[in-house]
């Protein structure tokens, strides 16, 4: 009798422990190692910093590959690179993003959230400059139809796409 009672207590203890462990709030991931200064009107990064000319990159904070992309050197845009990017985009991006990546692709309309207009700098949620476009393309946007392209594309091809996307963007009014 006493043994059954002990068994019962043991079962209750195990169930209680399991409940506590499952309900315990998940530990937050630590903040990124490179502190990112928040965008304030007129803020510009110091020369030589990975944020120089890329001040909108903070919008991608918390997204996959954020730190890795900070380490990359941005290659200069050339007409040849833009042209290579155009061909890649026409084959891979237009079904969702539309012929000139203006957000009117046939397949894109079925997605939630739908792909935005990549020709409007102010419409970008995750930043529209080189680093940000590179990160969105190479690492994707979690929980959306924007899959990572790190597998089909090399780093060079991704920069070609970035230069093409940048060439389509209308002048910034930011
Ligand atoms: C299967 C559909 C699909 C394809 C193909 C696709 N995208 Fe996307 N893309 C999306 C969706 C959906 C979003 C919007 C995600 C959001 O709003 O959070 C997006 C967002 C983006 C963004 C970020 C825009 C922002 O708001 O900051 C960039 C940059 C981008 N795509 C580039 C590309 C490039 C370059 C290609 C081709 C290599 C491509 N995408 C192919 C669906 C797609």
Structure notes:
The protein has 174 residues and is an all-alpha fold. It has a domain at 55-168: Cytochrome c-like domain (Cytochrome Bc1 Complex, Chain D, domain 2), CATH 1.10.760. Helix content is 40%, strand content 0%. The chain contains 6 helices and no strands. It has helices at 2-23, 66-70, 79-92, 94-97, 130-139, 155-168. α3 packs across α6 (155-168) and α5 packs across α6. It is elongated, with a radius of gyration of 23 Å. The model has no long low-confidence stretch (mean pLDDT 85). The structure holds heme C (HEC).
Question: What would you say about this model in short?
Answer:
The protein has helices at 2-23, 66-70, 79-92, 94-97, 130-139, 155-168. The protein has 174 residues and is mostly helical. It has a domain at 55-168: Cytochrome Bc1 Complex, Chain D, domain 2 (Orthogonal Bundle), CATH 1.10.760.10.
Q: CATH H-level name of the domain at 55-168... which superfamily? A: Cytochrome c-like domain
Portion of residues within helices: 25-40%
Distance between the termini: 78 Å
Q: Would you state the CATH class of the domain at 55-168?
A: Mainly Alpha
Instruction: Give the averaged pLDDT, no decimals.
Output: 85
Order of helices and strands: HHHHHH
Count of discrete alpha- or pi-helical segments spanning 4 or more residues = 6
As residue ranges, the low-confidence spans are none
Q: Which descriptors apply to this entry?
A:
6 helices; Cytochrome Bc1 Complex, Chain D, domain 2; 174 residues; mainly alpha; binds heme C; single chain
